[in-house]
Structure formats: structure tokens, C-alpha cells
Amino acid sequence: MAKITVSVIINSSIDKVWNQLNNPKDIEQWNQASADWHCMNASNDLKVGGTLKSTMAAKDGSSSFDYEAIYDTIIPNELIKYHLLDGRMVEISFQETTNQVLVTETFDAENQNSEELQKAGWQAILNSFKKHVENN
Questions:
Q1: Could you give the CA distance from residue 102 to residue 115 in angstroms, rounded to a whole number?
Q2: Activator of Hsp90 ATPase homologue 1/2-like C-terminal domain: which residues (predicted)?
């Protein structure tokens, strides 16, 4: 299974980046790849064995999908590893420098969409997260 990596540098503190990545109310604000989509709901039980859930939907109601994952490793402000219900793995690492945080996500590709499309979609969501953190 191919692995895909996306990353972004966020101009903020590590604590703010960590909190806004994991707070369900924040997730609902940044978890979309484009302006014509939105995150209808999110819940997050941030502990090993806990569950991350969200629903992303087109604003016109034409489609939606659920995202659900189980946490495997959590090192606050450093690393999150979880697996999706289909068994694919996701790893999110955080590297702090002076007033910046490099967030890197590596995930197992799925078989329905091209790797390029998957990378573009995940990068767009990560870019939305960056914009949310820097503007809130």
C-alpha cells in the first residue's frame, strides 16, 4: 500500500496547533477541502483506543462521507497515530520552531481515487487547518 505525505508550516504556538487540531468545535470549522464543503459534525475522544469521527458534506447536499478512526499512539504536541476502520494507517507529526509548527501527515492510500487526488484533498484540508489556526 502506497504512503502519501502532506505537510504545512503554521505560524502559531504548538499548544494552539495541537488544541485546534483536536477540539471538535475547531474540527467542524476547518475540516473541508474547499469552500463548497463543510464539516457537519465532529467528535474526538483523544486517548489510545479513543475514536475520532466527523462527517464532511457538500453544502448543496449532493454527497457526504463519514470519517472514523481509532487512536493507536498519542504523544501530546509531538505525534498522533491512528487507524481508519478499513485498516489504513495515519500518522501526524508536529515539529516546533520559533513561533512555527511543521505539521506532517502520512497516510496509507486507498484504492478508489488516484494518489494525486488523495494527496491534493488531504493537502487542501491541511491548508484549511493552517488558515483556521492563523486566523483564530
A1: 22
A2: 12-134
Q: Say what the pTM is.
A: 0.95
Q: Could you give the strand order of the β-sheet that contains 64-75, starting from the edge strand earlier in sequence?
A: 3-10, 100-108, 89-97, 79-84, 64-75, 51-58, 37-44
Q: Please state, in angstroms and rounded to a whole number, the distance separating the CA atoms of residues 46 and 124.
A: 23
C-alpha separations of 47 from 67, 83, 119 in Å: 17, 13, 27
In order along its 136 residues, the chain shows pLDDT tens digits of 799 999 999 999 999 999 999 999 999 999 999 999 999 999 999 999 999 999 999 999 999 999 999 999 999 999 999 999 999 999 999 999 989 999 999 999 999 999 999 999 999 999 999 999 999 9
**Can you read off the three cell numbers belonging to residue 87?**
485498516
Q: How many folded domains does the chain comprise? A: 1
What CATH number has the domain bearing residue 129? 3.30.530.20
Range of the domain at 113: 3-135
3-state secondary structure of 38: strand
Q: Of 128, 121, 96, which Cα lies nearest the Cα of 4?
A: 121
